[in-house]
Amino acid sequence: MTLPCRTVLILGGTTEGYALADALTTLPGWRGISSLAGRTRQPRLPAGETRIGGFGGPDGLAAYLRDNAVAAVIDATHPFARRMGWNAAAACTAAGVPLLRLDRPAWSAGPGDRWQQVEDWEQAVTVLRDQRIRRAFLALGRQEAEAFVPLTTCHFVIRAVDRPDPLPAFTAAEWILARGPFTATEEEALFQEHRIEAIVCKNSGGPMDGKLEAARSLSLPVILLRRPPRPQTTCAPTVAAALSWLAGL
């Protein structure tokens, strides 16, 4: 007996989103469509069907869910994709579609870690200034680097997938264009080569990150941006748990 095929919309772009799209290609009865924001110029395309670009806010997303007979939505966007998370919750409520948040666990400090968590990038700038950091490594979105321009006493090494256009008017900065993941050994060599004194990044979560392991090994301070609030919804910490949720529908 052939099962009827139902559509699940994956709001993706993360490692978990790609893994979920792979898994759905082998899950009977489900058709996956991955939606990517389109912020990188040449995104890696997930398995199955893909759409790129926004929906036009929660109303546009709700209309898309109705027009495409979407049976479920899995929000596998980055933990810092604040707006998409709230839009998904509002749209699914309006369209009457079940929503799951595929939410990787946040990182937590361990022995030897020198972490300081901040609420925004302005606070991170203040910490760098107060600690008199002369060379800092920024691992953040290219559009977010602008917040660090006012700190003229620090040389920044900035890693991003794409170079911003126009470039922020830093007093001293160099850009490394690369797409991860990176091993702890690679990160440690990078930090030593550029004489990095502090790491600035987001608490993206998931398996312990190479740059955090390298910072621990080198006893470097890490300035970590806290995650923004997300709407209350059903959550799953792993792809396997998300597939179990779908099976329960």
From TrEMBL:
Entry GO MF terms:
precorrin-6A reductase activity
Looking at its record, which EC class is this enzyme? Answer: oxidoreductase
Instruction: Tell me the PROSITE patterns matching this sequence.
Output: COBK_CBIJ
Q: Which Pfam families match?
A: CbiJ
Name-wise, this protein is Precorrin-6A/cobalt-precorrin-6A reductase
Q: Which EC numbers does the record give?
A: 1.3.1.106, 1.3.1.54
Keyword list, A-Z: Cobalamin biosynthesis, Oxidoreductase
Q: Which GO terms fall under biological process for this protein?
A: cobalamin biosynthetic process
